[in-house]
Design goal:
29% of the residues lie in helices and 24% in strands. It is α+β, with helices and mostly antiparallel strands and 817 residues long. Bound molecules: cytidine-5'-diphosphate.
């Protein structure tokens, strides 16, 4: 293998021991390339309070929009009287559904082939739904004017869970849809029904589990917002907005508002977190755009926290029922799963079109199971739209939670050690590529090794002894394991599209004459550190120091088309495009080097940042020399400049693996549980920036802990959203957050140009089961199989003392009902 190829394969970089680190690897760390724990460049502005968020932007003549939301979850609109609002000085426009309808904008298409009301016309279908909006000189006038709007409602029966939705005679929520006879959105199945039947016929034991993964909210620090600025004289519409997928928004605006795409510019500036909350198209965006077109003034809409928590971007809310066919030696023969997912009033979450319940069927991918079958039903209820992929690849969180809860229940049913049960069923290292029971192709991993590293780190055997000793003294200790491989990087265009648009991504690299560069991608960072890590990939591929590469994302006028950032797809797809575009640039630089060194291209070799003559290694030119030549001394006939663009269509998903282990102590007097230790072993292939990766894991584990322990947002029988504030929906602070012990295993991704796999959401996906399994392990003697999240102390106490499972499914009973 020549040095040129060497420079492109870096799996060895993280795998080699210190003594074996190559000169290239040392040089690479110096320039901030692959494997360097470079400090995040974007933090320079964030920690100084100099970030530029949508709400920081002030445009001349800007007006402000506020939304009036429905207090009821299901009601017919009898009348809307806006006269008092219009009469308030400073009010410029009051929009209702009726007015939107005259422009065919009362309803909009969703990213899942459904329709969604922009402003309600016929009836309201969830508490918090948009009913009217006011545009005024300042936000306070707009808010006061909203309160002056009088809406008369006629209340209708409310549905808050799938059982109610599917009951005989249930009120029809979507009576606006011509062919909709009931509240079912889809009935979908995947897997091998007959093969699974046969597996169950051969089983020695069938283990079953039912649970509800509750509604949760991504709750980014920054809420949603937009500033639409339509300029009549240029016919250009510029929208600054909180979006994780600016190009998709541009396409949606072009298609829905019938504006020419080249006259639309979407700018997503700094985002204060996204976590999937900023993927859908929300009515607020549409109304601010229409208002700006009508008023020919910039119109700003900034959502408040309550609005954000009750109306946008809900996730999960899925009921799972599963059965596992087991042989008594611990072999899993087959799995049967059924899901009922609650999507709220509109099916608006982004899904790959082919997969109605997202990647739910990626469950059990790390286990060698001969056959599996999944049936999935999605329903409408009187709740805000749900099902967004909160730090998750389209329902992977629910899939892995269910998988790992079932695995623990099955191990208990068999009387087998939970770690040993996993080990017996893992796909082995030499079984790759491996076809999963639902048809995915996993390509790499060292599952047994990750588990062993985790068990050793936590001191598994010792802990089991401690647990027994503690039990003698009335103390309840528990240990929970969660292991999973997760499909990240949607996706190859054969299988993955949203609304028919294929899920590739892109990067454009321009090297200036002094060797400095600008890189733009179709992804959009929300805090993940792309400005830092993408520059590291360029440094690795071209030898240009990372600090010489500026990264820009989020402006559709300048960035190449891409599907945006969610589902941890950035590194697998856009990150791959960054490597590929760098290689294209290097190919041209090689021609320039041959010209400068006066030899033929075939005689040129590459090492990090430098081309040299094979027969005379001292005779070389740097990448910076080549960049200068591209503008000042190119060979005859060569196009000047040093830049290129790459669109990357990944051949497969990437399959990172994780093993999370938590130990807890439950107080039998109160049901309060404390985390003792958390060990995380992640294999995300080659790590571009180990420090950034560790940050992603710690953040993900914190969200996992929050979901498992304290985040409570639910609905009462009238559809009132309970927990729509930070008194109930708790975000862990540094005080509550446990400490984490992180470990790594590196199995490079065989098809990714730099061997990387996604990491951003692994810990959020895999973490909750570790905490819940640990608590259930601690109270195992009570015979309780399940407590729904969050495992609030009263639920744990009820389970312990009443010795029964505890469901958290809505409607909840409120004290005052
Ligand atoms: O799509 P998103 O950026 O949310 O997730 P990701 O692709 O998993 O990347 C999260 C952050 O971790 C990015 O800054 C990546 O470049 C970085 N990362 C890394 O340094 N090494 C990896 N193998 C994977 C991600």
């Amino acid at each position: 293998m020549g040095r040129e190829e060497d420079a492109g394969t870096v799996g060895e970089l993280s795998q080699t021991g210190v003594s074996k680190v190559t000169t290239q690897a040392r040089d690479e760390i110096k320039i901030g390339g692959l494997g360097a724990s470079r400090k995040r460049v974007e933090d320079n502005r964030f920690i100084r309070g100099k970030g530029n968020y949508v709400d920081d932007i002030v445009l001349p003549g800007m007006l402000h929009m506020e939304i009036l939301r429905s207090p009821l979850a299901h009601a017919r609109i009898v009348s809307i009287d806006t006269s008092k609002a219009w009469a308030i000085p400073g009010v410029r426009l009051v929009l209702t559904g009726e007015m939107m309808a005259t422009r065919n904008l009362a309803w909009m298409p969703t990213l899942s082939y459904d329709t969604q009301a922009v402003l309600a016309t016929d009836k309201v279908r969830f508490q918090g739904q948009e009913v009217a909006c006011v545009i005024a000189d300042d936000p306070y006038i707009a808010k006061d004017a909203c309160e002056a709007i009088v809406v008369e409602y006629e209340a209708l029966p409310v549905i808050v869970n799938p059982t109610q939705a599917m009951a005989e005679g249930a009120p029809l929520i979507r009576d606006d849809k011509e062919n909709q006879q009931d509240n079912v959105i889809f009935d979908w199945e995947v897997g091998d029904r007959d093969g699974t039947e046969r597996a169950f016929a051969q089983a020695d034991l069938v283990s079953t589990l039912e649970l509800h993964y509750p509604r949760s909210h991504p709750s980014p620090m920054e809420c949603c917002g937009s500033i639409a600025d339509f300029n009549r004289s240029t016919s250009k519409l510029t929208v600054y907005m909180t979006t994780q997928a600016p190009h998709i928004i541009r396409a949606a605006v072009a298609l829905v508002a019938e504006l020419p795409e080249h006259m639309i510019r979407i700018v997503s500036p700094d985002l204060g977190g996204g976590f999937g909350n900023k993927v859908p198209v929300y009515p607020g965006y549409v109304m601010s755009i229409l208002a700006s077109i009508l008023l020919e003034r910039p119109v700003k809409w900034i959502e408040d926290k309550t609005g954000n928590l009750i109306s946008t971007g809900f996730a999960r809310d899925i009921y799972l029922r599963g059965e596992m066919a087991l042989r008594k030696d611990g072999k899993i023969l087959g799995v049967r799963m059924h899901t009922d997912s609650d999507h709220g009033a509109f099916f608006s979450d982004a899904q790959p079109s082919k997969f109605k319940i997202g990647l739910m069927h990626s469950a059990f991918s790390c286990y060698d199971i001969p056959s599996a079958h999944l049936t999935a039903r999605g329903v409408y209820t009187n709740k805000a739209p749900g099902g967004v992929a909160y730090r998750c690849s389209f329902r992977v969180t629910e899939a892995m939670f269910f998988q790992e809860r079932m695995v623990q229940a099955a191990a208990d049913d068999l009387g087998l050690d939970q770690a040993e049960f996993r080990r017996r069923n893992f796909v082995r290292d030499d079984d790759f590529p491996h076809r999963t029971p639902f048809g995915f192709l996993t390509d790499s991993g060292q599952y047994g090794k990750c588990l062993d590293v985790g068990l050793q780190a936590i001191g598994y055997e010792d802990f089991l002894k401690q647990k027994e000793e503690a039990k003698q003294r009335g103390r309840l200790l528990g240990i929970g394991i969660s292991t999973m491989t997760e499909p990240l990087g949607a996706g190859n265009s054969r299988e993955y599209d949203i609304l028919g648009i294929k899920m590739f991504d892109s990067a454009e690299l321009r090297v200036h004459m002094t060797g400095k560069a600008i890189l733009r991608t179709g992804a959009k960072t929300q805090g993940q550190g792309h400005e830092t890590t993408w520059a590291q990939i360029v440094a690795h591929e071209l030898g240009i120091p990372a600090e010489d590469v500026v990264v820009e994302e989020g402006d559709t006028d300048t960035a190449p088309f891409g599907m945006g950032t969610y589902a941890s797809r950035s590194t697998p797809v856009a990150g791959a495009a960054v490597a590929m575009v760098s290689r294209k640039v290097r190919a041209k630089a090689r021609k320039l080097a041959a010209h400068l060194l006066e030899v033929s291209e075939e005689d040129i070799e590459w090492e990090l940042g430098r081309f040299y003559v094979r027969s005379a290694p001292d005779n070389g030119v740097t990448i910076q020399d080549c960049a200068f030549a591209a503008y000042s001394n190119m060979p005859d006939g060569m196009e000047p400049g040093l830049e290129n663009v790459a669109y990357y269509d990944p051949p497969n998903l990437t399959w990172p693996f994780a093993c999370y282990i938590a130990t807890v102590e439950v107080d039998p007097q109160t049901g309060v549980w404390d985390v003792l230790r958390v060990v995380a072993v992640d294999d995300c292939g080659v790590r571009i920036n180990p420090m950034v990766v560790e940050g992603q894991i710690m953040g993900g584990l914190t969200e996992a802990y929050a979901m498992a322990s304290m985040q409570f947002i639910t609905f009462d029988a009238q559809g009132n959203c309970i927990g729509s504030n930070y008194m109930d929906y708790l975000l862990p602070t540094a005080w509550e957050t446990p400490g984490y012990e992180l470990h790594e295993v590196v199995t490079p991704c065989p098809h990714h140009p730099i061997g990387a796999k996604g990491i951003g959401e692994c810990a959020t996906v895999g973490g909750p089961a570790a905490f819940v399994n640990a608590v259930l392990d601690a109270i195992k003697d009570s015979g309780v199989r399940n407590i729904d999240m969050p495992l609030l102390p009263d639920r744990v106490y009820e389970a312990l003392t009443q010795r029964h499972d505890v469901s958290g499914a809505p409607p909840v009973k409120m004290d005052d009902q």
